[in-house]
Amino acid sequence: MTTRDAVDAVASDIRDHHITVDGTGLFNVRRHIELLCQLTARMAGDAEYQLAPNITDLPPATALSVSAGHLGQAIAHYTQALAPLLTLATGRRDTLQHKLDAFGHHNSLRVHLQSAGLALTAARTALEIQQPLPTTSTPAPAPRQDSTVRRRA
User: Fold this and answer.
1) For residue range 6-40, what is the model confidence (pLDDT) as tens digits?
2) CB 98 within 8 A of CB 92
3) Which pTM does this prediction carry?
């Protein structure tokens, strides 16, 4: 599986396993974090090997590194989503104050999950950027000297 295919597979898995405000949502967030960590480790390793000679089937090391950075941001947002999700999934909802507090937790959860999705999209986009092929240029010819001009000694 190519690096781009791996990112697409993780993104598809994340889309297919929604985050709900219950025990299943907690399991899915933990699962998403694990998948993202494994993918980030793979990209970091691929970037390291890309720096070695004779590795031509990988995206450029720079693209891999940038993409791994975006995946790190996605991991951070999923981790930050754990606190409000845990509060919503396990908290009491019998008082008015708890119900009012739930609005803030829902908003925080939504913001972090949305930001994680944007970071994952940015990781995929970083892999699509085509690096310009190195051009072989011929050295510029040396300037010709006029034979009528004498050099001073």
Assistant:
1) 899 999 999 999 888 888 889 999 999 999 999 99
2) yes
3) 0.74
